[in-house]
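Lab notebook: predicted structure, single chain.

Context: the supervisor wants predicted structures on file for every construct in the current expression panel, including those that have not yet been purified. This is the next one on the list. No modifications to the sequence; it matches the entry in the shared construct table.
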Amino acid sequence: IKQAIVSIGLEELRRFISLLFTAQFSESKPAELATLAHNRAHFCEKIYQSVGLGKQHASAFLVGMLSLLDAMLDSALHEVINDLPVSNDIKQALVNKKGPLYLPLQLCELLEKGDWEGVNEVAGKLDLSFQQINDHYRNAIAQTSERMAHI
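Prediction complete. Output recorded below exactly as produced.
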């Protein structure tokens, strides 16, 4: 994976993963599932970057993208993720729902559910205002729309 990133660059690798992800599941699953995974990926990355949790924004993107893999594969998420060559931080976020990579995903899931009390609680942990969260979410939707138009 490191060689692929060095060879083609992070943005191209991201495009490739998005294309592969969408193509793999486009026939057997609703397109909305791939769209939601892309929304989550972009949102998690933006939140992670905005709160300065570290330099793992690419990992935050993958957490969002892989968060619906169980629905895509009709299999338990822990079984699927444990077989993937991803970092322990990503596995912790997706399987155990713990760690700094989980907070942006948790925030996204709460937004999707309309759990405003939960949103406020996680927003407090991340020191973000509702307006900032809303801006990042709208930005993620716009990025997803643009990306999906090119797939």
